[in-house]
């Protein structure tokens, strides 16, 4: 009986949280829309696949080395991290201290977690190398540009106005966000308003680049 209980506890499904279950269903829906319905496959397929990998229970593919350490809940290791951050040795207090810490301190804690034997997940590494550095959105731009067919535009130049309308939408959305901030309805910084404006222009990769 103990062996069976240990087997069940070792299964990922036993550690599946409600949030992970919801995100797994959403990811499967995105994959179905991309593959079966051919709806924005270049966008929804990688989002759905990444969502599946990120929410596999106990896999930790999207966790950094420090996040893996915190998820492990080892009292001795938490005490070492807490001593460096001058906070209580519990996960919640450490996370709050890290949120307020300088980037250099966060990097030191990450290196300390690596020294303790923890490694970042493959998705965390991908985020750091591709998205965190800003390389991935630029590669997306090149890919989209290489796939663009300008034949219909050259055949009917008046359709250029349709493309220009989206660009006017960018400025209108930025001004709208800043207006909401001016009247105190919703607080937006200028970079946030710019990211919202790019979304208004129907350009997701640019929004990712600006909001990062």
Summarize the structure in words:
It is a single chain. The mean pLDDT is 83. The chain contains 13 helices and no strands. The protein folds into three domains: 14-59, no CATH class; 65-129; 152-211. It is mainly α and 212 residues long. The relative contact order is 0.07. Pfam families: OAD_beta (PF03977). This is oxaloacetate decarboxylase (Na(+) extruding). The chain crosses the membrane at residues 12-35, 125-148, 160-183.
Summary keywords:
single chain, 212 residues, mainly alpha, 3 domains, 72% helix, extended
Gyration radius, rounded? 22 Å
The percentage helix is over 70%
The separation of the N and C termini measures 50 Å
Element-by-element helix/strand order: HHHHHHHHHHHHH
Broad shape: extended
Uncertain ranges: none
Classify the secondary structure makeup into a structural class: mainly alpha
Subunit structure: Heterotrimer of an alpha, a beta and a gamma subunit.
Keywords: Cell membrane, Membrane, Translocase, Transmembrane, Transmembrane helix
Main location: membrane
Membrane topology: Multi-pass membrane protein
